Amino acid sequence: MSSQLESLKLQLQQHLGERIRASKLEVDELTVEVAPQDYLESCRTLRDALQFEQLIDLCAVDYQNYANAQWPGKRFAVVLHLLSVARNVRLRLRVWCDDDAFPLVASVNDVWSAANWYEREAFDLYGVMFEGHNDLRRILTDYGFIGHPFRKDFPVSGTVEMRYDPTTQRVVYQPVTIEPRENVPRIVREEGYGGLQH
Predict the structure, then answer these.
(1) Would you state the pLDDT for residue 67?
(2) CA 151 to each of CA 66, 75, 125, 126, 156: distance values in angstroms, whole numbers, following the listed order
(3) 180: which DSSP letter?
(4) For 25-35, what is the mean pLDDT?
(5) Residues 43-48: what's their mean pLDDT?
(6) Spans of all domains in the chain
């Protein structure tokens, strides 16, 4: 571990203390986990006391069948990537959602305004609710879309498609018109292809 990351780990311990549930170093970046009830206050501390002034990314992760195996822990997590420009260091922060049926964490939109669209995307694609977000609505899928398409249990093929109907001048839903089929690739090569002789 670099001396900069060692120093960061000590400072995190000083400022967050018992709020740190776990920490580990991977790919030369420090990951810290906090509990949902400590998440918002930990983010404020990271911004104000430790100078993590930029939120680089925020995403949700569905750990169901993670690494093609039964996942023993909670299913959904929210992961933030933070940058301190002043200190030239990055940090990954993870918080687990307590309830798999209704994943919920606090919104950090008031801490970093960049979280706005990221939280909307995590809500839209994974169904994670962000308590305190003032405009939590779908951002990538249609408003009438049912479900959350990045969840691992979301069906791969649907039964309804949408299209624009020029007669009614609106988007309409209708049963899928494409027959399901199985594509089996065939290798077709001309004789003498690549110097091979048949």
Answers:
(1) 86
(2) 12, 10, 7, 5, 11
(3) P
(4) 91
(5) 97
(6) 3-152
Which three-class secondary structure state does DSSP give residue 119? helix
In 3D space, the residue among 120, 117, 93 whose CA is nearest the CA of residue 30 turns out to be 93
Report residue 193 as tokens: 């292809």
Fold (topology level) of 3-152: Beta Polymerase; domain 2 (3.30.460)
Q: Which two tokens stand for residue 168?
A: 């009614």
Average pLDDT over residues 17-27: 91
Which two tokens mark 33? Answer: 């986990």
**Is the Cβ–Cβ distance between 61 and 80 less than 8 Å?**
no
Q: How would you label 69-98 residue by residue, b for 16+ Cβ within 10 Å and e otherwise?
A: eeeeeebbbbbbbbbbeebebbbbbbbbbe
The radius of gyration of the chain's CA atoms, rounded to the nearest angstrom, is 23
Q: What is the pLDDT of residues 167-187, one digit of tens each?
A: 999 988 888 766 666 666 666
Start-to-end CA span in the chain (Å): 56
Model pLDDT, residue 184: 65
Q: What angle do CA 12, 16, 19 make, to 5 degrees?
A: 125
